[in-house]
Automatic annotation (TrEMBL):
Keywords of the record: Activator, Chromatin regulator, mRNA transport, Nucleus, Protein transport, Transcription, Transcription regulation, Translocation, Transport
Protein name as it appears in the record: Transcription and mRNA export factor ENY2
Places the protein is found: Nucleus, Nucleoplasm
UniProt-listed PANTHER family: ENHANCER OF YELLOW 2 TRANSCRIPTION FACTOR
Matching InterPro entries: TF_ENY2, TF_EnY2_sf
GO biological process terms on file: chromatin organization; mRNA export from nucleus; protein transport; transcription elongation by RNA polymerase II
GO cellular component, one term: nucleoplasm
Quaternary organization: Component of the nuclear pore complex (NPC)-associated TREX-2 complex (transcription and export complex 2). Component of the SAGA transcription coactivator-HAT complex. Within the SAGA complex, participates to a subcomplex of SAGA called the DUB module (deubiquitination module).
Functional description taken from the UniProt entry: Involved in mRNA export coupled transcription activation by association with both the TREX-2 and the SAGA complexes. The transcription regulatory histone acetylation (HAT) complex SAGA is a multiprotein complex that activates transcription by remodeling chromatin and mediating histone acetylation and deubiquitination. Within the SAGA complex, participates to a subcomplex that specifically deubiquitinates histones. The SAGA complex is recruited to specific gene promoters by activators, where it is required for transcription.
Molecular function GO labels: transcription coactivator activity
Length: 107
């Protein structure tokens, strides 16, 4: 049985999901999502993140052995560290670009 808090929490999550989907759709329709992905790729290469991620992959492969590692193992072992290694400046720049895009294209 839901209490009022649980209902409000579920409703808020649903609204948030709908809002995210709408924003994503707008980014795709306007071609901004691809531009943001290209910007992100360039920034990650520029700051050395890509090289760090390659080193993490090599480390996981070395620990488990090339014959014993699966793609799933690699993704599971590297993803959390990879996300943590993204510089705050890159995250902030992307967020600013998204906010500017939404402000410019809000309906």
């Amino acid at each position: 049985m839901f209490n009022r808090f649980q209902f409000l929490f579920q409703t808020n999550i649903s609204r948030e999901s709908q809002m995210r989907a709408a924003i994503n759709q707008k980014l795709i329709e306007m071609g901004e999502r691809e531009r943001l992905k290209e910007l992100l790729r360039a920034k990650l290469i520029e700051c050395g993140w890509r090289d760090q991620l390659k080193a993490l992959c090599k480390e996981v492969i070395k620990e488990k052995g090339i014959e014993n590692v699966t793609v799933e193992d690699l993704v599971a072992g590297v993803t959390p560290k990879g996300r943590a290694l993204v510089p705050d400046s890159v995250k902030k720049e992307l967020l600013q670009r998204i906010r500017a895009f939404l402000a410019q294209h809000s309906t």
